Fold this sequence. Notes:
Elements: H1 4-13, E1 22-24, E2 31-33, E3 43-45, H2 51-63, E4 74-82, E5 85-92, H3 94-97
Parallel strand pairs: 3-4
Antiparallel strand pairs: 1-2, 4-5
Amino acid sequence: MISPRLLRKPVTIFPQLTQCRIRVAEGTPLQYIVPFENSTFPVYDFSMASESGFHHWEQAVTREVMGLVDAPLFHFYIFRLGESEGGILLKTHHLISD
């Protein structure tokens, strides 16, 4: 069985990295580092959905434009596809992943 609790464990380490806490201020170009804060990440359960329903959600999430000004430059999506299948979708802005 896929345990959302275990999937959250690696997800909690990533935001502690300094480069993942970069923000961009509005107006004058300025990057700054925000203090680390514990975050919770929701679990999306697709165990009752069709495969095409999951893929539709995945495409919608990855195509959604990420905010840049005073916003996180990454998002985690923990998902379940069934009792023994699931994963983590990590979406990052190119400022921290290039």
